[in-house]
Amino acid sequence: MSKQVKQPVIFVSHGAPTLPLENGHTTDFFKTLGHQFPKPSAIVCISAHWTTERVAVSTTEQNETIHDFYGFPRKLYEIQYPAPGKPELAKRVSSLLEEAGFMVDTDPQRGLDHGAWVPLSMMYPAADIPVFQLAVQPRESTVHHYNMGRALHKLRNAGVLILASGGATHNLRDFMGQSADTGGFDYAREFDRWLKIAVESGDADGILNYRQMAPEARRNHPTPEHFLPLIVALGAAGNAPQGRQIHDGFTYGMLSMAAFRWDA
Questions:
Q1: For domain 9-262, which architecture applies?
Q2: Residue 43 belongs to what H/E stretch?
Q3: CA-CA-CA-CA torsion sign (188, 170, 262, 239)
Q4: Cβ neighbours for 30, distance < 8 A, ≥ 6 positions apart
Q5: Helix count and strand count (H, E) for the chain
Q6: What gap in Å lies between CA 176 and CA 148, rounded to an integer?
């Protein structure tokens, strides 16, 4: 991997799949985010919407756009994000993860799910940056995911952007009956405030033990897959776990749109 400008680690809450069709505070954030640091040579996206039993990396040469949802407007299904893959780099990432002690599967067919293409379609609409995905394993521990991120840390010096895409809060049980402009519920705001403090103070232990440490943790994350990308991001930050919040807001009452960045 050649020496290039070091890239940050970014965690974003990708929200509902319809986000690219909307206008507002969060879409404005995504449309400017890709201009806030040098253009990456490639992107590895850790998406909440690719879950596997074992660590898995996508090695496709050309990404298909996966519309992994139903019941949305037809216009949403017409969105395509035909970014190329980067199989040689994806295989190098597999090797890094294996060197860290993981058993790794590669998937030459996997395209980009909406956890990847929703933010990327706004960040880099030209779809001209190679992208590949890394899956999360909801049955594994936060330490497992933190160590996955640690294995990716050196990619940043090669100009690779580590983009973790999930949700700072994600209780779809409370989704029904809410509108996009419904402000944050109290229990979600409480967790959101805790997470901001934990990230900005570099409280890695608290984040890894969020089930015990965070307020209303199980209500905000009945299942862990949307929080695990943030854990991978924290690991990829290396020995400098202090990050900073770069976006906030709520939609549908229970979805925090918080985003964080680590630069060190």
A1: 3-Layer(aba) Sandwich (3.40)
A2: strand 42-51
A3: positive
A4: 12, 19, 119, 122, 123
A5: 10, 10
A6: 34
Cβ distance 46 to 120 under 8 Å? Answer: no
Which pTM value belongs to this model? 0.95
Q: Say if strands 55-58 and 42-51 run parallel, antiparallel, or are unpaired.
A: unpaired
pLDDT digits (tens, 9 = 90+) for 133-153: 999 999 999 999 999 999 999
What are the domain boundaries of the chain?
9-262
**Structural contact between residues 71 and 103, judged by C-beta atoms closer than 8 angstroms:** no
Query: Are residues 185 and 262 in contact, defined by beta-carbon separation less than 8 angstroms?
Result: no
Q: Are 15 and 255 contacting, i.e. CB atoms less than 8 angstroms apart? A: yes
pLDDT tens for residues 195-234?
999 999 999 999 999 999 999 999 999 999 999 999 999 9
The Cα-based distances of 72 to 21, 182, 256 in angstroms read: 11, 19, 21
| 259 DSSP β-pair partners | 247
Q: Are 237 and 262 in contact (CB under 8 A)?
A: yes
Amino acid in position 164: A
Mean pLDDT of the chain: 95
Rounded average pLDDT over 43-69: 97
- Taking the C-alpha atoms of residue 250 and residue 258, their distance in angstroms, rounded to an integer, is 8
Q: Residue 264 has what DSSP assignment?
A: -
- What does the block give as tokens for 133? 């995905």
What is the band of 1 on the pLDDT scale with cuts at 50, 70, 90? very low
Residues 6+ apart with CB under 8 A from 193: none
